[in-house]
Amino acid sequence: MRLVVGLGNPGAEYDDTPHNVGFATLDELARRALVSFRRGPVAESMTAQMPAGFETVLFKPLSFMNLSGRPVSAAIRWYKIRPQDVFVICDDVNIPFGRLRIRQGGGPGGQKGLNSIIQSIGTESIPRMRMGVGGGYPGADIGNYVLKRLRGKELADYHELVGRGADAIEHWLESGIESMMNKFNIIVDDKDKE
After folding, report:
1. Any alpha helices (H) in the chain, and if so which ranges?
2. Which residues are known to be catalytic?
């Protein structure tokens, strides 16, 4: 069993905001797989079971971003899985918009939801995909930036990023993280050269 955790904040007012790119990526994966989210088996969660053969659950913690560790650690105990079987999707303001950074582990890098998960389960060995949403320049009001609702071209670019994130997770499910890193970390680097 694998758990794909998308980070975000609950509530329609957070839809289409940079901070909710993890939720949006899970919604895209669920749409493609023709599955729906329901109340999860642990408090503060919604889940969607991927089709047979994937042995994967899509998991949204509903505790608000900075407290994500509580429902994620409860889910790890519920499903009786290892932290290495969890894959976290989150935003990162320090990565240029549109880029993906996939790693097998490491520190939170200032992402408070990821930090909450690391603190709750006691290890940094959690595979993750940071989705670049930009905005992390010196002096920026990060709080307002990540919670602003995107519109127009920004929203179109955001949907493109979400689609690429969903492509990457589907690749991970079929081919593993090494192949995923080789394919998707490089693709975004090539895009920077355009």
Report:
1. 21-33, 69-79, 112-121, 142-147, 152-175, 177-180, 186-192
2. 19
